Amino acid sequence: MDGGAGNAILDRGHGPRSVARVLQLLDRLAGAPQGASLAALAQAMDAPKTTLLGLLRGLAAEGYAVQANGVWCLGPEAYGLARAILAGQQDGGLGAAGRPLLERLAEETGESAMLSVLAPDRSAMVYTEKVESRTALRFSASVGDHRPIHCTASGRVMLAYLPPPWPEEFLGKARLTPLTRTSVTDRRSLRRIVAEVRALGYAVTLGEATEGVVGIAAPVFDARGEVAAAIVLAAPLVRAQPKLAGLARQVRRAGRELSHQMGYRPARRDKKEE
Hints:
alpha+beta; Arc Repressor Mutant, subunit A; Beta-Lactamase; 2 domains; six-stranded antiparallel β-sheet; two-stranded antiparallel ribbon; IclR family transcriptional regulator
C-alpha cells in the first residue's frame, strides 16, 4: 500500500494486534457474503466500533472492503488477491495447504495420513499427498494409488457429500466387489452407511479395503462449499480400534482446518465445535 489512507490500517491500531484485527476482519467479511454491519463485526470480534471503523476505512481506501446499504463487504482487491494466490497453485492450493496438516496429524496420532480425491472419471479414489507413520507396523501407501470408492472411508465421504445425482447413480449401478471378508457390498447397507457418514461428519472402515487396517476420513470443502477431497488416517486395526473415537475427532478437526484454509466459510456458530 502507498499513501496516507493505507497507513491508517496500522497507524490507528497497535502494531501486530492491529494487523491481526485486519486479518480477522477480512475473514469475517469472507464468511458474510451478504455483508455485515459494523455493530455485528464489533460484537463478533469483541472489539470497539471506533477501532474497527478505522480499520475498515483503511481497507476501503485500498479496495479491500466496500460499504453499501449499511453493511460492509469484501472489495474487488480482496477477490483479486484471492484469485492471484489460487492461480499459483495447480490444485487450487490443496496440496500446499494439506501437507503441513498431514505432517501434524501423523505426528500427533502416530499413524499414516493422506489426502484423497475422486478420480476424474469418478471410478476410484486417488491419493495425492501422504505422510506415513514412523512405526514399523503401519499402513503404507503411494501417491497416485487408486482405491475403491465403496469400501474406503474416503470414498464414502464422497458418496455422502457430493451433490446428486452421482452418489445414487454410483450406489445403484457400480460393481461392488469385495476386497476383504468384511467389505460391505449390499447396496441397502451402503446407503445407510453413507447417511450415517453425513450425520457424523466422518467415515470409518474396519478392514474393508485392506485386511486389518482401519480407515478414518473427513471431508475437505472448497470456497464454494463443495467437497474437494478427503483427509484420511489409516492405521493397524489392533492399535487404532481402542482409541477410534479420539482419532476420528482429530481427523475431523484436520478436515475442518484444511477446509478453512481452502476458503470454506460455513455459517458461523456461537458455540465452537469440539
